[in-house]
């Protein structure tokens, strides 16, 4: 049996780096500034424990463009490297200096904020550069080193000319990457990836206006001076303790995150946990529309203040991806597949924690100021309803604060609603029936009819409410939902309001025969009901089950039970106590009776939105003839 070592040809490494190391070549700047930040934070830690005998001061990372020389410089004032360290950390490809540093200073460096997880970060520079130089001087009393490589396996390493500790990376930008010599492009990348890095980042200068000197005339221009242009906020709100922040601080940070968003957030949730994982962040509830897709990808994921992505699916529960804000955690694995993320134990715990914190915050807002919570309900309900559908634990918590508004603007929790309607809205099987409208305007006549009988009608108009109703029906005992225009109201028993028909059984039979002779469309089932004489004479309803099945087909369940399109089925409810129905019954001529029936049915169809095309045209023509 033969044994040995597999040799990797180093000649093949650099082309692979240039093509495949990262899908986005722009990421090189994030990696190099992350390294510079690491170097600075390492020095901060070593000075704090007395191991580095230098003054830490207020270091900056500087990014400079030399357009004429086709060079990009990244300069830090960090720990620096000796010649031996350059050999070890730069020439040994994929060796992570940050990881070794953390292992060496395990007990004292865990809170130093060293990024560490980027491994091949430095070599990402060869994705955009044809040659890279490193000029570095260690904080130790040793000479500077100058390393240079042109993208081949060959490098040079010699003594460098640098007086102060720190590192300068010089990228000789390749011809196909000249975009990275443009100020606007670099400014864009710094704003995208490094906006909240923990070390100040300087990129050029800016003009600052100074106060006018005493005695200056009004028309005299104010003096100005050039100052460093610091492009980042090293101490963003999420890195601070909630007790140290006011509501104005949270709103200011929201504007910093979303400068083009003019509406204030409704409220915020500050995340801050260090066990069993590390996670900080701030989530904001914006005003939401009913569009579930347009809202997503507004939460930014950071790792130790380095921007990673704004696609947080798998890390944040899906129903919360419509929120905005920041999550920062060193415990989230990066640059891995979504399936790996979803299976990762730490990520699952983080997702569960975020869901619980959001539920607790919503419950607190509901308890502390219900009136304010009710005023915001329509702007946040889509998230809560989505969460109740997708997460059982969230459903259990949200059941205490989820609201069910009526068409008249009252709000009930589910428990309050059950108590409110328990004596008035039960069916023949003693099941509690919850009436609702999905469109106040289109279903206005049905709403008025229900209110006229003293029933409560909810307004449930979000795009996923049908699915939530099904979940509520299966999770709650003895309740069902019926849309106000779907099942006839007299299926409900209101004992003190029972109506007696004015027609005899013989008259009812005759009326039904007359109606069925005129109604040729077999999708209508005639039902005679004794109702208040002021209620509509003809009402068209649709069985709740059939209506829901059609809606499910329209939202993606079209192949259910092997069926194609669901058949059209309607109930034609005829109020036997209405004066018009009595006139139809007593009309002497068949022609007049047919005209009255057709006109009445078409009015009911018009109210239901079922009268269209040729039938609508014929109805209008007939109506004018009757008026004339």
Characterise the protein shown here.
With 628 residues, the chain is an alpha+beta fold. Helices cover 36% and strands 20% of the residues. The chain has 19 helices and 23 strands. The strands form six sheets. It has an eight-stranded mixed sheet, covered by helices on one side. Strand 4 and strand 5 form a beta hairpin. Helix 9 runs antiparallel to helix 10, helix 9 runs parallel beside helix 11 (392-398) and helix 10 crosses helix 14 (465-475). The termini are far apart. The model is unreliable at 1-9, 94-99, 112-119 and 557-563 (pLDDT under 50).
Topology:
Elements: H1 13-20, H2 27-48, E1 60-66, E2 71-76, H3 83-89, H4 97-104, H5 106-109, E3 129-137, E4 145-149, E5 155-159, E6 166-173, H6 183-193, E7 200-209, E8 224-230, H7 247-257, E9 267-273, E10 279-285, E11 299-303, E12 306-309, E13 324-328, H8 338-343, H9 345-368, H10 370-390, H11 392-398, E14 404-405, E15 411-412, H12 414-421, E16 426-427, E17 432-437, H13 444-452, E18 457-459, H14 465-475, E19 479-483, E20 492-493, H15 505-518, E21 524-529, E22 538-541, H16 544-557, E23 570-575, H17 579-586, H18 590-608, H19 613-627
Parallel strand pairs: 1-7, 11-13, 17-18, 17-19, 21-23
Antiparallel strand pairs: 1-2, 2-6, 3-4, 3-6, 4-5, 7-8, 9-10, 10-13, 11-12, 14-15, 16-20, 22-23
Main traits of this protein?
628 residues; alpha+beta; 8-stranded mixed beta sheet; 5-stranded mixed beta sheet; 19 helices; 23 strands; 20% strand; elongated
Number of strand elements: 23
Tally of alpha and pi helices: 19
| Gyration radius, in Å | 36 Å
Strand order of the largest sheet: 5-4-3-6-2-1-7-8
């Amino acid at each position: 049996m033969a044994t040995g070592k597999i040799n990797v040809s180093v000649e093949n490494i650099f082309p692979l780096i240039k093509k495949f190391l990262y899908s986005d070549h722009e990421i090189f700047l994030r990696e190099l500034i992350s390294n510079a930040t690491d170097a600075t934070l390492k020095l901060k830690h070593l000075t704090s424990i007395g191991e580095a005998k230098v003054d830490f001061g207020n270091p900056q990372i500087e990014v400079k463009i030399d357009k004429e020389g086709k060079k990009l410089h990244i300069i830090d004032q960090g720990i620096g490297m000796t010649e031996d360290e350059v050999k070890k950390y730069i020439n040994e490809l994929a060796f992570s200096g940050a990881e070794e540093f953390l292992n060496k200073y395990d007990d004292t460096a865990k809170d130093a904020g060293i990024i560490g997880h980027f491994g091949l970060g430095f070599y990402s520079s060869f994705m955009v550069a044809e040659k890279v130089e490193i000029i570095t001087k260690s904080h130790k009393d040793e000479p500077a080193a100058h390393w240079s490589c042109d993208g081949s396996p060959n490098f040079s390493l010699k003594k460098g000319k640098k007086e102060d500790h720190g590192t300068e990376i010089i990228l000789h930008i390749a011809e196909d990457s000249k975009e990275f010599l443009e100020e606007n492009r670099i400014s864009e990348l710094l704003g995208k990836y490094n906006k909240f890095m923990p070390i100040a980042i300087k990129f050029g200068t800016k003009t600052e206006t100074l106060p006018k000197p005493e005695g200056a005339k009004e028309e005299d221009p104010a003096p100005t001076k050039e100052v460093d242009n610091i492009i980042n906020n090293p101490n963003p709100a999420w890195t601070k303790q909630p007790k140290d922040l006011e509501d104005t601080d949270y709103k200011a940070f929201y504007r910093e995150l979303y400068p083009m968003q003019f509406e204030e957030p409704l409220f915020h949730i500050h995340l801050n946990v260090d066990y069993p994982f590390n996670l900080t962040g701030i989530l904001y509830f914006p005003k939401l529309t009913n569009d579930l897709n347009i809202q997503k990808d507004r939460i930014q994921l950071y790792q130790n203040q380095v921007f990673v992505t704004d696609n947080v699916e798998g890390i944040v529960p899906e129903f919360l991806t419509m929120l905005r804000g920041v999550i920062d955690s060193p415990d989230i694995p990066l640059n891995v597949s979504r399936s790996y993320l979803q299976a990762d134990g730490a990520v699952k715990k983080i997702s569960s924690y975020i869901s619980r914190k959001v539920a607790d915050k919503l419950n607190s807002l509901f308890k502390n100021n219900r009136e304010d919570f009710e005023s915001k309900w329509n702007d946040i309900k889509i998230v809560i309803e989505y969460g109740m559908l997708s997460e059982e634990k969230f459903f259990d918590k949200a059941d205490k604060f989820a609201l069910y508004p009526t068409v008249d603007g009252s709000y009930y929790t589910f428990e309050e609603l059950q108590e409110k309607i328990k004596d008035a809205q039960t069916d023949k099987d003693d099941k509690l029936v919850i009436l609702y409208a999905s469109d106040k305007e289109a279903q206005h006549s049905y709403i008025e009819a229900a209110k006229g009988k003293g029933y409560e009608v909810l307004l449930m108009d979000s795009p996923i409410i049908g699915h939530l109703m099904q979940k509520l029906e299966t999770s709650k005992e003895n309740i069902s939902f019926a849309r106000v225009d779907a099942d006839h109201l007299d299926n409900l028993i209101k004992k003190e309001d029972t109506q007696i028909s004015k027609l005899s059984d013989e008259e009812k039979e005759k009326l039904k025969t007359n109606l069925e002779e005129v109604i040729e469309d077999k999708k209508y089932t005639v039902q005679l009901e004794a109702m208040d004489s002021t209620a509509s004479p003809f009402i068209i309803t649709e069985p709740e089950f059939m209506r829901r099945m059609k809606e499910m087909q329209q939202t993606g369940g079209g192949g259910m039970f092997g069926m194609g399109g669901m058949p059209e089925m309607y109930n034609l409810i005829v109020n036997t106590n209405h004066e018009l129905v009595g006139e139809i019954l007593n009309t002497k001529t068949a022609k007049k009776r047919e005209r009255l029936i057709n006109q009445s049915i078409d009015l009911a169809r018009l109210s239901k939105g079922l009268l269209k095309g040729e039938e609508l045209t014929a109805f209008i023509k007939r109506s004018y003839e009757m008026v004339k």
